[in-house]
Write a structure and sequence with these properties.
The protein is an alpha/beta fold and about 325 residues long. It folds into 2 domains: about 130 residues, NAD(P)-binding Rossmann-like Domain (Rossmann fold), CATH 3.40.50.720; about 180 residues, Rossmann fold. Helix content is about 35%, strand content about 15%. The strands form 2 sheets. Strands 8-7-6-9-10-11-12 form a 7-stranded parallel beta sheet, sandwiched between helices. It has a 5-stranded parallel beta sheet with strand order 2-1-3-4-5. Helix 1 packs parallel to helix 12, helix 5 crosses helix 7 and helix 7 packs parallel to helix 8.
Length: about 325
């Protein structure tokens, strides 16, 4: 008899076909966001769940869903999942690293360019019928080529962004908890520096580090004050890494020149103060949203789930210590 699983949000048909070959699948192809109580009810009797970043998995939920053995997130980030709680409940947690690296790196460069060169502001100006001709000082931006890019977080995606930035002759600084291998630094010419030095020297500060309790409000009023008045902040990481209220204040006061954001605190809700600003480019968390990449993410999560519930170690296991807590 096949184990039962839940897929909490819409995925591609081929993902459902794959899962049907292994499990009795309850899916959500209408893509309706489950309320908390409804999610708990649907997880009763399920062995595993393929989640999205909108699903909060924590100790309270796991206490009420004792049959769950695996939580497989369809994302590289997993701040929606209390991994420690899953470990204590003997539940495997996986994510989807690698498959979205290049798409996110591409989008990051696009957001840098759009912000520095005021692309969305220019489009809005044209759409409103305000464009009457071209003038020497019209909508002046910041150059990307030759600028100094400071990257917080230098894992797969950070390194891929650095390689692309090198094509724009950008100087690359980075800061991360541990220094990257010499080969990774040499490939992009990246230089490891301290947090404050990066903030003071970079023309573009880009965030691509994980969200953890330690990185919550990693960039706040103090850090923004260290940046150049001409600098641009780009957040490709997770909402909450930036103090959005402090960023809005800095953009209003021109403490920094502009910001480009793909993520926000409390998304999909976000601080409406951003909508009052012309010097911010807003994007609805779609950096990985190319069709091939999203297909690969969904299938990677499904394969993690198939491996986990068949007694194998899933390829992208985040908490190998879960085995210490399995019930005898």
């Amino acid at each position: 008899m096949k184990q039962k699983i839940l897929v909490t949000r819409e995925v591609f048909d081929e993902t459902i076909d794959f899962l049907n070959g292994h499990f009795e699948v309850e899916s959500n192809q209408t893509d309706r966001l489950y309320a908390r109580d409804e999610l708990i009810a649907k997880l009763q009797g399920k062995g595993g769940v393929q989640t999205s970043s909108s699903d909060r998995i924590d100790a309270e939920l796991l206490d009420k869903c004792p049959t769950i053995k695996a939580v497989c997130n369809t994302a590289v980030g997993y701040n929606n999942i209390d991994v420690d709680a899953c470990t204590r409940h003997g539940v495997m947690v996986t994510n989807t690293p690698g498959v979205l690296t290049d798409s996110v790196a591409d989008y990051s460069m696009g957001l840098i360019i759009a912000t520095c060169r005021r692309m969305t502001e220019g489009e809005a100006y044209l759409r409103k019928g305000e464009w009457k001709g071209t003038f020497l000082k019209q909508m002046l931006g910041q150059d990307v080529h030759g600028a100094t890019l400071g990257i917080f977080g230098f894992g797969r995606i950070g390194q891929a962004i650095a390689r692309r930035a090198r094509g724009f002759d950008m100087k690359i600084l980075y800061h991360s908890r541990s220094r990257a291998a010499a080969a990774a630094e040499n490939e992009s010419g990246a230089v490891h520096v301290g947090k404050e030095e990066l903030l003071r020297k970079a023309d573009v500060v880009l965030l691509i580090l994980p969200f953890t309790p330690e990185t919550q409000h990693y960039i706040g009023a103090k850090e923004l004050a260290l940046m150049k008045p001409s600098a641009v902040l780009v957040n490709m990481a997770r909402g909450g890494i930036v103090d959005d209220a402090a960023l809005i204040e800095a953009l209003k006061k021109k403490t920094i020149w502009a910001a480009g954001l793909d993520v926000y605190e409390n998304e999909p809700r976000f601080n409406p103060g951003f909508l009052e600003l012309a010097n911010v480019v807003l994007s609805p968390h779609i950096a990985s949203a190319s069709e091939p990449t999203r297909q690969a993410m969904a299938m990677t999560a499904a394969k993690n789930l198939a491996a986990a519930l068949s007694g194998q170690a899933p390829p992208n296991l985040l908490n190998p210590d879960y085995v210490k807590y399995l019930k005898a």
